[in-house]
Amino acid sequence: MPDLISERPDLIVEHVAKQYPTRSAPLEVLRDVSVQLSAGENLAILGPSGSGKSTLLYVIGTLEPPSSGSVTLGEQNPYTLSEPELARFRNQHVGFVFQDHHLLPQLSVLENVLVPAMADGPVTDAVQDRATDLLQRVGLEDRLDHLPSELSGGERGRVAVARALINRPQLILADEPTGNLDRTSAASVAQLLLQLPQEENTMLIVVTHSTELAQRMQRRWQLDNGQLVSGE
Amino acid sequence: MTFLKLAIRSLIYYWRIHATVALGVAAATAVLIGALVVGDSVRGSLRGMTLDRLGRIHELLLSDRFFRTSLADQLPQQAEFPQDYQLALGLMLFPQATAERPGDGQTTRATNVLVVGSETDARQAPQQTDFWSLGDRSLAPAPLPQPGEVVLNRRLADELQVKVGDQITLRLPKPESIPADSPLGEKTDRIRSLPQLMVVAIVENRGLGRFSLHPSQSEPLNAFVSLRQLQDALDQKDRINALLVAGPDVLPAPADEASQALAAALKPSLEDLGLTITHPRLSYTSANGDEVVVYDYFSVSSDRMILPAAVERAAARALGPLGGHPVLTYLANVMEPVVAGDSPTGIPYSMVTAIDPTNQFTLLDAQQQPIGRLGDSEIVLTSWAADDLGVGPGDEVRLTYFEPETRGGASEESSAVLRVRAITPLTAPSEPFLPSQQHHFIETPTLANDPDLTPKVEGITDQRSIDDWEVPFTIDYSLIRPADDQYWEEYATTPKAFVSLATGRRLWGSRFGATTSFRVPATGQLTQEEVERRLMAELLPDKATLGFAFRPLKRQQLAASAGNTPFDWLFLALSFFVIAAALMLVLLLQRLGFEQRAQQVGLLLSVGWNRRQVRHLLIYEGLAVSLIGSALGVLIGLGYAGLILAALHSKAWWLGAISTPFLEFHWTTRSLVMGYVSGTVVSVLTIAWSVWRTRHVPARQLLAGRVAAAASTYAAPARWPLLVALLLVSAAVGLAFWAFGLTGEQQAGSFVGSGAMLLTALLIWCWHALRQGGRHLAPLTRRAPLVMLAARSAARNPTRSTLTIGLIATASFLIVAMSAFRLKPTETGTGGFALIAELSQPIFADFRRPPEREELLGDEAAAVLRGSDLFTFRVRPGDNAGCGNLYRAQQPRILGVPPALVERFDDPDAAGFAFAAAADSPQNSHNPWHVLSAIATPSGEPIPVVLDKDTALYSLQLLGGIGQEFTFVYDDRPITFRVAGLLALSVLHGNLLISEADFRQLFPDINGYRFALVTAPAGQAEQVAEVLEDRLSDQGFDALDTRVVLSGLMALQNTYLRTFQMLGALGLLLGTFGLAAVQLRSVLERRGEMGLLRAAGFRRSRLAQLVLLENLFLLLAGLAAGVLAALAAVLPHMFRGGAAVPFAELAMMLVLVLLVGMAAGYLASQATLRVPVLAALREER
Predict the structure, then answer these.
(1) B492 vs B434: CA distance, rounded Å
(2) What ipTM was assigned to the predicted interfaces of this complex?
(3) Are B792 and B780 in contact (CB under 8 A)?
(4) Interface touch B1097/A118, C-beta < 8 Å
(5) CA dihedral for B216, B217, B221, B222, sign (positive or negative)
(6) pTM for this one?
(7) Distance between CA atoms of B1055 and B657, rounded to whole angstroms?
(8) Selected residue of A118, A165, A181 to mutate for chain B interface (largest B Cβ count, 10 A)
(9) Per-residue pLDDT tens for B1004-1035?
(10) pLDDT tens digits, residue range B578-594?
(11) Nearest Cβ partner of B1096 from A58, A96, A123?
């Protein structure tokens, strides 16, 4: 079983398995997966459709508990927390970037970035300043009041990256972040995705089909039929 | 796997969503069933009450004259008596009696009491044929009342506050034959009292205990006495005035043919009709011993002095060919010569006969020459009169006489100047006149020597001296000379002068008739029997107009029990919101179910099903769901109807308006089937429509689980919506200002219109703000970001959100704004009158004139009445056609509007009744009451009528407005009316108002006034009422405060509005569940967003809060917009005094809606917790 071992792992995924019950035998989506990652490191997970990439991402992102095994992020196993604590943990420690970006169409660019900050109460000026700063860093400082419908695909991706970073998470999880983008936009988003976490000393795990993006990452893993089958 | 099997499996698999749709269908069906069953219950209860109070009684004959008891016995013996009936019972009925309980200082009185005088002597009437045997015998009182006793029904006992053993007095109309409105008619002493009757039993208001002649759900006031007691008190031995004809069973009510046969079987005698045939004959034995017949004829006369027109016509037909001819004899108060200078004394109180010459009646002049036909201004004096007046042919004499019809109870004198054409000899009798003996003459008498030309009038013609006359007018005894007394003694009623029939009828003809007797020469073999036979042959077909008409009481009242209001349709209309809300719920739930199955539908399409097949699958499932839901709805609907009936039974709700608890639960198979089928069909159509709307969603999108289009983008700011909103606000303000100049419902309608404009403006503004994304309204950087986020989420689909807000706003607007139509008493509703009064017995005097007041009421009472005015109306009793009577009026009560009332409203400053509409003509432009002409309508033309708008629309279903003609049958005679004026709601509600001139022409036999409107100085109404009730207690004067009466009338309209509001609120409650369904649907559409929020660290409870807040935002926005606009509509009207707004009730309603809405929203928010939002994050796109 291949392992990725760093010096000071901040993320430790140990022997994670995920099964879904069916009428016949349980469907095994992940089998004995273990991953370790340290601050500032990034990792690409590749694999064919249905290999369990996204499931692994959600298990790490505290959105889906594993059937067995454990996840430790910042010395905390989030799955031992209650639902409200888990949500707060996720809010503070994990940022997500999705293929569809999932921007709220009724909110402006700035407001979309602020959404994670609103999970626990009013938005402070400091958070608002950080959002503005992040948007400046992704090159959207002149689009703060625009609605998602007024943005290009690449711009939406950049907003999603900024949003993922708003709460200074330890870990960013990106699910096919460039999957729906043209080459130029994809490159731009990929650049930001690699650059900003690096600047924020944040771990990054990207699930992608894009070998081009994977090549730019520090580590690459192949997931096939629920198992990590190769890595660099 | 077959198509059907797939549908069944789908039904079972998606049972949860199907169950919710079925509940929606059940709600819609339940409301339909509920409304229909309420209609069944009202009709069934009215019908049940009719059968209960009439028992086996099918037909009623109530005559205005007394007739032989034996007529009742003879009726079933007639060959024509139909087998549908079993027996006829003779009795006395007085529908307008007064009952009093003398108390210590205060008398308790009940008016409009129905007194039933029936045989209670078992020897005379075995139990099988007495009054109580016509109903449920077990409910008969024990003991039956004997002379000196009375039995009361519970309602009357309660009204009089008496118990068994107490004593009461009954006051009844005294039998009078001469019409009271004629100068010789008695006007004051018309009441016969039955004092100190001991109450021996009190019967419950059930069975014949609530026997009533009129269909009404109100319990009648009934008193039962023995027939013999009434016959003795009224001096009508062996006489009755009513017949009840009963069948073997309560039902069926015999058909019209049976009624006609019954009418044919009724054969009143000449005596029953009040007619008499006499045989005046005067012969003289000449000096040579021969008998010379001076006159020999048969005379038909009436106990009412004047022959009714129908009798005169029948006599003309029957006896005209035998040489019969009419005679009219009238009393001239003074007959005097017309000379210059001092007026000489004339002859007082003379009979003048109007008659035309015939072969058998030819007056001769002094020269024994036939005088011939008289001209219009000519008169023939008898020699006695000519000598007394000192006039001869060519001279003029003046006749002074009373007008044939009194005005306001007073006899008014008129006079006519006629030229003396000739003098006819009058032979002096040899002995004073004795009524029972023939006149004796020494010299040859003449045709003029005929006292029988004058009809018999009790109290006058039977008196031996003028001094003994019993007349209702004041005799000026100073005019009576010894010669006049002597004439009366010798000649008695022998006329002193003759005029032509045309002249007589011109001067003395009236609505009562224009013939006092019909004279037939006794020629040949003609006998009195033959005259009677011929006359009766012509009279019997016309007997109905002489007061011998049967009323098919059972049939009429059963027809009336169909109700004046179709309650099923009324409640369907009132339940409009509930039905609409339930169907909306069905639509939304169905749509929700579809969205949950979108992928399955997409799959079916992708594997080769065509859309029609898919639609059929879903519609078949919908049909099954509807059938099950409707079946459930039938059961729920029966319970719902029970709840409505319970509410209607509540005094606070409906009972206050209709006064009597009578509703019982009734249902018909027809209603259940109708409700079930309607509920199913409407639901299936709704489901089909919901499915049909998804026909354009691409299969690929369905496969992705999406039904709706992708999120909308926000429109660029546009000014036009704001401009339109501003225009609407301006128009609303303008309309409101204009409305200040209006009154009543027009004002309320205008204010509601203004509010509706404001509501539209608010919704446009709302839509505009949402289209902007709501960014300016709810920036997330402020406090409470979740609230702001909810508000912004509501703006995500501005059109859907505006529609949702609009639906709630419109419903709450209508519910609140309808309060503007809640009425409270106004000056126009009372017409400016303080009191409205009804009388058991008519009054005749004109109490508007102070002399009459002082004379008839006393100085003290007249002083109290100073400053008050009293307008009296003639009354044709009938059914209350008001909305308060749930029975459909078969013969609405008619009031004759006095000319004085019409004149009163000529004064523009006088307070008056408000007209909703009136026929257009120059003379009524300033006073619509002039649509009632002062001159009687020509025969054959429809009678102009004024009636209350609501009476016309709802009770009589006259939807044609002004000009519409309609016909009702009174006394077996159809009368056609034409709507000439429609009053706004007023104390005159429920009556047909015609001019007094028309009234007198239509109902000549109805004398006096039995309805009054009274003005009173401010603060003195109570005092005025007390005085009038005290002084006119014999007539049963019963006065009510007009504002109290009006409030009672308004209570009904307010009750319906209240029901509408309550059912509207119920609809709104269901609507809030619809709103929750919309929210859930919205969550499903936004699963990705929700997933993102979860991923971003939003707790599930925060997501639920977000959905709840979003729901609350829409709910509050809708309620706020609706209530705000409604208040703008209601408050000005309320401040103008036109509306009585139940703020507390409305606030409670809306708070309840809010609470239930929040609860429904909470359920929706909890449901979001179960939506697999995370899956949406990983869907392959």
Answers:
(1) 8
(2) 0.73
(3) yes
(4) no
(5) positive
(6) 0.74
(7) 7
(8) A118
(9) 888 889 999 999 998 899 999 999 988 888 88
(10) 787 788 778 777 777 77
(11) A96
